Amino acid sequence: MIKVLFFAHLRDLANTEQIEIPAGDITYVRDLLDAMQPFVPLELIDALREESALVSVNHKYAAWDAELHDGAEVGILPPVSGG
């Protein structure tokens, strides 16, 4: 299983703080977009495709093409703006 945690407004779009997805055919973080579809509203998937959301894998920032393994914890965070 892969645990996916949602933060800030992405949590609101997901209607949950976290989901667990069978690792199955998930190889990379980007594969989560398709794998999450049965578990979260399509609005969230669309937002993630359009936004430059940040991801972490096992508490370390990662790229969308980072490899995932069974038991991984993925955090999805909205883009951070500075000022």
How would you summarize this macromolecular structure in one to three sentences?
The chain is an alpha+beta fold. Helices cover 23% and strands 25% of the residues.
Structural overview:
- The protein has one domain: Beta-grasp domain (Ubiquitin-like (UB roll), Roll), CATH 3.10.20.
- Helix content is 23%, strand content 25%.
- It has three helices and five strands, in the order βαβααβββ.
- It has a five-stranded mixed β-sheet.
- A hairpin with a 2-residue loop joins strand 3 and strand 4 (60-62).
- The model has no long low-confidence stretch (mean pLDDT 92).
Q: Output the CATH class name.
A: Alpha Beta
Number of helical runs? 3
Low-confidence sequence ranges: none
Shape: globular
Strand order across the biggest sheet? Answer: 2-1-5-3-4
Tell me the CATH architecture.
Answer: Roll
Q: Assign the CATH superfamily.
A: Beta-grasp domain
Structural class: alpha+beta
Ends distance: 38 Å
The figure for the number of domains is 1
By DSSP, the count of extended strands is 5
Order of helices and strands: EHEHHEEE
